[in-house]
Amino acid sequence: MSSSPTVSSSAASLPVVQAQALGPLWPTMDPFLFCAHHDDAYPAGNGAFAPAVSLEGRQIGSDFSRKDGWSMYHGDTVPGFPGHPHRGFETVTLVRKGLIDHSDSLGAAARFGGGDVQWVTAGKGIVHSEMFPLLNATEPNPLELFQIWLNLPAKNKMVEPHFTMLWNERIPRLVHNDDAGRATTVTVVAGALPGAPAPLSPPPESWASQPEGDVAIWTLRMDPGAQWTLPAARGQGTRRMLYFFVGDSLRVGPQDVGQHAALELLAGQDWLLTNTGATPLECLLLQGQPIAEPVAQYGPFVMNTQAEIMQAMNDYRRTQFGGWPWPDQDPVHGTEARRFARYPGQTEEERPAEAPVGA
To answer: Which residue windows are transmembrane per the record (predicted)?
Structure first.
């Protein structure tokens, strides 16, 4: 990159190892492979889940243009990502605004949003779609989410695929009020946080389920002027990235960060975080012990060797990873703004239509 975010300090002990600018894809480090922040200002829908505006000028089927503040991605009618395969890693999808329709080759389906988290272990192979239906035909349909790819160690790359939902109202949160009464709210998607309720269980074969993984996925929201101490990671050698993406300015220990950035932090000690700006501040934190194995990647397949990548491609051509049980490549789950999950075996879980505020 040509320039780095400005990070200033007033002491010799520096928590920020490296600062990198935030682009369309955010920088990650082992055990994470990928972190995308989708923030789309979709217009009103046309009654058939598509934008009620012309799509002229977009490269339909591969539209990442952000024209008018949004993209169709790989959708040709409904925005999103029609059926596509994965092998060898996990996807963790945190939704901040809007609704996502999930369908997969296991027969699982879900509509989720507003703070919900979907966690999919691709393992030996899964095909899924992630569509963004525009349900509101009279108002805009904003969508905002993080999609994070978490690697699997070699011994777990060929486990059975697994689908789970972490519903917003069940995800633990820690609310800390500093001496001046200014609040910091930490949402604990994965990884124990002192003072917070116990985290929900990740999928059983996840690196996040292994005690040695020391994986944490947290989001932070800080009032103007708020202070909160980020506790040290448990594991020696754990790596930690703090993504500062909303707010004016942040102080980490003695270092001031004046623009949005991905901040690699020294993970082995506590650091006082201060929102030094005049508006609320938000961060995403990813941490974990490196898996420290070779990574071979080709698109949606992440293995350890090129031979395994070739095997993945051949297996997908031959088996389609179990086939696609849906009539379309881009299924949409009805017109109601409901939240639900149907798990393999047809067990269905219904949640309140509106997720509580505070995701």
So the answer is: none
